[in-house]
Design goal:
The protein has about 450 residues and is mostly helical. Helix content is about 70%, strand content about 5%.
């Protein structure tokens, strides 16, 4: 019992009167039971209250201040709670909007997924079609390559056949670029240029008087010049050049020039390979065999192609041959100038004339060698010491001396070229028909002596 009273007193001391009042109201049902002890408890409470009133008063103030602080904190917490709830509502709304967007996104994703599946199906179908197309394309490419290969073979065969046809046409064609009259004109033009050049050069130089001729020891130093001149115009002409006086009348020098130019022109026209004349014998034999065995169209084209592709000497190199011939003849004829002076004078003053002769000979060479195939043209040249034949050649200086000779007089030198046309008889191997179109001209020693004597000069 005492313990119960102590608990009440302790409880009263710990809580304010309002709490105690609540306790007393709560314990009213025990009033009768605790009447006696109530007095004692009351006295104890009064006694205790007298001593702790001040403590309880301070305690009450502290609790009241704490309560106010708690209320203030509660207010703050309520405001924060309100703000938090407002923020939560906003976030819930945002979340709801986001969820709505997510749902919309999911719906669109589902739609896209359906479209993707459809696209994948279409892609698969297109891939299948593409595979078929690729296989078809490869097959077509293989066919195309095969056709290209066949086409290339066809083109190659066509080119081969074309070349063969061109080669056959080259050998079988009978069309000539030049006519016989054209070739005759070329020969006559060359002869005319030779005559004019010989006259111009002979008149351009002065000669020593006959009694002022070279001494015997000087003639020994001229051995090489005499040998070269003899090869060109013959020993009789060289002797006439040495023994005759040319100061008043250089006619014999002019005839010697004509002979030298005609000889070199004939060599240019007839030679197959001007770079290597030693091979001419072999080529000539081959051509003679072809001429005798094959038809004219074949042999003519062989000759034209061979002449076309054989080397040809440059014009300048050929011109030097003519210049050397002029110099040697002038030295033999006892010209006033020495060798170096003569060569320089001719190269300076007559280079153009010499070039005309060389070009004329080369043009004639090309004409009869390459531009005419239906027949063979041959340039005629009479070598010195050949017996004179009126049926085959003309005397440039007609003399009555020949008529009284029992034996033909030897030719002194040639002065002009001739032209002969040769045609193979069809179906007759080795049978040819020859026609002289231009008769070559020569000079006889007797004719020159008669001419010089009639002019009052002594040869």
């Amino acid at each position: 019992m005492a313990g119960a009273i102590y608990k009440q007193v302790h409880f009263a001391a710990a809580f304010p009167p309002s709490v105690m009042l609540l306790e007393r109201t709560f314990s009213l049902s025990n009033f009768t039971y605790g009447l006696t002890y109530g007095r004692i408890a009351g006295l104890s409470m009064v006694f205790c209250g007298l001593f702790s009133f001040k403590y309880f008063l301070q305690r009450f103030k502290g609790l009241r201040a704490a309560l106010e602080r708690r209320n203030s904190e509660v207010s703050v917490l309520r405001r924060e709670l309100t703000d938090a709830r407002s923020d939560i509502r906003e976030k819930e709304e945002a979340l709801a909007a986001h969820l709505k967007e997510v749902e919309d996104g999911k719906r669109r994703l589902v739609e896209k997924d359906g479209s993707l599946r459809e696209a994948q199906k279409n892609h698969q179908a297109l891939a299948t079609q593409l595979g078929h197309r690729d296989r078809e394309l490869r097959r077509r490419e293989e066919e195309l390559q095969q056709h290209k290969h066949e086409h290339a073979l066809t083109v190659q065969l066509l080119e081969t056949r074309t070349l063969e046809l061109k080669g056959a046409e080259a050998f079988l064609t009978k069309a000539d670029i030049l006519s016989g009259a054209d070739v005759i004109a070329l020969v006559n033009t060359l002869n005319s240029e030779i005559y004019q050049t010989a006259a111009m050069v002979a008149e351009a130089f002065e000669f020593k008087a006959k009694e002022e001729g070279a001494k015997e020891e000087d003639e020994d130093g001229m051995a090489e010049v005499y040998a070269s001149a003899t090869d060109m115009v013959g020993p009789q002409m060289v002797e006439m050049l040495k023994s005759s006086g040319h100061r008043e009348d250089p006619t014999i020098v002019q005839i010697a020039f004509q002979a030298a130019m005609a000889a070199y022109s004939h060599w240019i026209v007839r030679t197959w390979n001007l770079e290597d004349p030693d091979n001419d014998i072999g080529v000539s034999k081959v051509y003679k065999g072809i001429r005798d065995a094959e038809e004219q169209a074949v042999s003519g084209r062989w000759r034209a192609l061979t002449r076309k592709y054989l080397p040809n000497t440059a014009e300048h190199e050929l011109s030097l041959l003519f210049v050397d011939a002029f110099v040697n003849i002038l030295l033999v004829a006892d010209a006033v100038m020495i060798h170096a002076e003569l060569q320089k004078a001719i190269e300076t003053r007559f280079a153009e004339r010499v070039s005309i002769i060389v070009k004329g000979a080369q043009r004639l060479r090309k004409a009869i060698g390459e531009e005419v195939t239906s027949c063979d043209f041959e340039v005629l040249f009479v070598n010195y010491d050949t017996p004179f034949s009126p049926a085959q050649m003309d005397d440039a200086f007609v003399s009555g001396f020949e008529k009284g000779r029992e034996e033909p007089e030897p030719v002194l030198c040639a002065t002009e070229l001739g032209l002969e046309k040769n045609e193979r008889q069809p179906g007759k191997e080795g049978s040819w028909e020859s026609i002289v179109l231009v008769r070559p001209k020569i000079a006889l020693k007797s004719g020159i002596e008669d001419m010089v004597s009639s002019m009052g000069n002594t040869p």
